[in-house]
């Protein structure tokens, strides 16, 4: 098997945004290049729900992000089939998340991120109901489907990710929430730093097992505190990571500041992935302040809930009964190009027929994904043309202006 880029991972900066940390570049991986800024489509289980790999290629998706937690039990099968790109038939660059976010979310009900308490603090019944708890070793949790006890620490996460075999892996980290105190963040960051070193050590043992090189990003936490973010980034800059994941629960008002603190300290020649954000303003603020890649379930999840993106802001499909308009006149996605009307989309969405509702999920997911991918393409072109500031202003005016 021949791998691209001489089986190497490296980042090339093409052009910077004057006066800011943002840049356009190319991430070279063994399974191909990612031109940045770029949005990675989320295929948690190795596929994007309702969207085929051919459709992903047709909307110019460049990379897919899957999850170590969800794929952990079938990771040996993925390894036996040549790794994630070959096994999933995606045949392009891939990234996996460490699974830390998922197991810790179990501690407070799926998907909701609140403060995690350590084992020795678990006293009242409320705490005992948690499905997960954090110790120095890692995270103990109960599988929400089988009820079985399970454990993932940095070593397990690296072993799982190296069997899955994405081009880019995330180090195992503890995420903190907006509700966590400064003191808790200090304690958590120290543990995450120890986990980062353990991740690096374990990753080195397995990163070439599938015959191509798999890279590792360190994940930066530190909440909303400048001193914590900067000191963490200074330490991680000295560690042998191939790139960085920018993590945490962000408020829109402070996103730009936090990214600036981090990216002023991190080495410029390594790529940075902003974890879990994809609204247009997040992407443009992220890009301006030095984030290179993005991922989020929002475009497909919102599509399934009837929220469709347009140049003039998102629309709620439930209000478009019998409408003969299309979603977005300026959109080049296959859904809009087919001229299917909002009225027909709404009918498919509300249909009791499973084939019809699945068709809606497919058409709507394709549109929302393409909308965000096109935004990153336009942002990239604007950086290359030296017009990013004007592009950002005009896009945000159009998208959020009428609110
Ligand atoms: Zn469209």
From TrEMBL:
Keyword Coiled coil: no
GO cellular component: cytoplasm
InterPro entries membership: ArchSynthase1/Queuine_TRR, TGT, TGT-like_sf, tRNA_ribo_trans-like
Ranges of residues in domain tRNA-guanine(15) transglycosylase-like: 22-400
Alphabetical UniProt keywords: Glycosyltransferase, Queuosine biosynthesis, Transferase, tRNA processing
GO BP terms: tRNA queuosine(34) biosynthetic process
Assigned EC number: 2.4.2.29
Any one GO MF annotation of this record: tRNA-guanosine(34) queuine transglycosylase activity
Class of the enzyme per the UniProt entry, highest EC level: transferase
UniProt-listed Pfam families: TGT
Superkingdom in the source lineage: Bacteria
The name this protein goes by in its record: tRNA-guanine transglycosylase
Biological source species: Holdemanella biformis DSM 3989
């Amino acid at each position: 098997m021949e791998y691209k880029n001489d089986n190497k991972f490296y980042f090339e900066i093409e052009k910077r945004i004057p006066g800011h940390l943002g840049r356009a570049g190319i991430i070279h991986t063994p399974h191909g290049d990612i031109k940045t800024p770029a949005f990675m489509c989320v295929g948690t289980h190795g596929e994007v729900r309702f969207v085929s790999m051919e459709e992903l290629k047709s909307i110019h998706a460049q990379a897919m992000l899957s999850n170590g937690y969800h794929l952990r039990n079938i990771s040996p099968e993925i390894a036996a089939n040549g790794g994630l790109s070959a096994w999933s038939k995606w045949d392009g660059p891939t990234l996996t998340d460490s699974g830390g976010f998922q197991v810790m979310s179990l501690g407070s009900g799926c998907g909701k991120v609140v403060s995690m308490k350590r084992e020795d603090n678990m006293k009242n019944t409320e705490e005992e109901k948690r499905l997960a708890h954090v110790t120095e070793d890692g995270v103990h949790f109960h599988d929400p489907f089988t009820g079985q006890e399970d454990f993932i620490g940095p070593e397990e996460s690296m072993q799982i990710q190296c069997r899955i075999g994405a081009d880019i892996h995330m180090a195992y980290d503890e995420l903190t929430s907006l509700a966590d105190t400064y003191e808790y963040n200090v304690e958590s960051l120290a543990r995450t730093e120890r986990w980062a070193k353990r991740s690096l050590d374990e990753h080195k043992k397995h990163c070439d097992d599938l015959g191509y090189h798999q890279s590792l990003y360190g994940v930066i936490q530190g909440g909303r505190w400048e001193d914590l973010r900067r000191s963490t980034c200074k330490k991680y800059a000295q560690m042998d990571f191939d790139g960085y994941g920018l993590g945490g629960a962000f408020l829109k008002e402070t996103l730009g500041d936090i990214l600036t603190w981090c990216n002023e300290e991190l080495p410029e020649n390594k790529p940075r992935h902003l974890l879990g954000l994809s609204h247009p303003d997040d992407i443009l603020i992220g890009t301006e302040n030095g984030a290179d890649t993005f991922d989020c379930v929002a475009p497909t999840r919102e599509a399934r809930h009837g929220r469709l993106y347009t140049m003039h802001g998102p629309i709620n499909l439930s209000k478009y009964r019998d409408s003969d308009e299309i979603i977005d006149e300026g959109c080049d996605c296959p859904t809009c190009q087919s001229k299917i009307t909002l009225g027909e989309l709404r009918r498919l969405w509300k249909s009791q027929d499973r084939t019809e509702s699945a068709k809606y999920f497919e058409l709507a997911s394709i549109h929302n994904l393409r909308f965000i991918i096109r935004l990153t393409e336009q942002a990239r072109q604007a950086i290359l043309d030296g017009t990013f500031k004007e592009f950002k202003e005009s896009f945000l005016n159009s998208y959020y202006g009428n609110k």
